[in-house]
Amino acid sequence: MSAARFFTVKLKRSKAGWSDHTRRILMGLGLSRIGQTVHLKDTPAVRGMLFKVVHLVEVEPHEGVKPSTSARVRASQDKRPERQGA
Predict the structure, then answer these.
(1) By CB count within 10 A, which of 21, 50, 51, 66 is most buried?
(2) Which of 64, 60, 49 is closest to 2 using CA atoms?
(3) What pLDDT, on a 0 to 100 scale, did the predictor assign at position 1?
(4) Cβ distance 46 to 4 under 8 Å?
(5) Which of 1, 9, 19, 2 is nearest to 61 (CA)?
(6) Do residues 46 and 40 lie in contact, with contact meaning Cβ atoms separated by under 8 Å?
(7) According to the model, what pLDDT value does residue 76 have?
(8) Strand order in the sheet with 5-11
(9) Residues 15, 34: contact at Cβ < 8 Å?
(10) Rounded to 5 degrees, what are φ and ψ at 72?
(11) What is the pLDDT of residue 80?
(12) pLDDT at position 68
């Protein structure tokens, strides 16, 4: 069994001024704000949507386990050890 493939997709440009069709594609990808990042499974449908909005997004392919997008998980990973008396 091969490793699963994923895309990390970040919205880099505004959807303002683009057609309703383009806005719906971004919504289908789960992108609503500039700078927002989502992790999507590599499927033909996702590839087709990314092809349509490639001028608005930044795409980075990944293999292996899907990165966690949970804010709670990210927060726990970002915690630094407490400092001992200063």
Answers:
(1) 50
(2) 64
(3) 47
(4) no
(5) 9
(6) yes
(7) 52
(8) 37-41, 5-11, 57-63
(9) no
(10) -65, -40
(11) 56
(12) 66
CA nearest to 18, candidates 46, 57, 44: 57
Kindly give, in sequence order, each residue whose CB lies less than 8 Å from that of residue 41, ignoring residues fewer than 6 positions away: 4, 5, 6, 7, 66
Instruction: Map residue 9 onto helix, strand or coil.
Output: strand
| Residues 6 and 40: beta-carbon distance below 8 Å | yes
Contact 5/50 with Cβ under 8 angstroms? no
Which residue is it, tokens 């949507």?
Answer: 49
Question: How would you write the pLDDT of the chain (86 residues) with one tens digit per residue?
Answer: 467 899 999 999 999 999 999 999 999 999 999 999 999 999 999 999 999 999 999 999 988 877 665 555 555 555 555 666 65
Closest CA to 12 of 50, 51, 55, 44: 55
Unique residue bearing structure tokens 């990165």:
67
CA distance 35 to 10: 6
pTM for this entry: 0.72
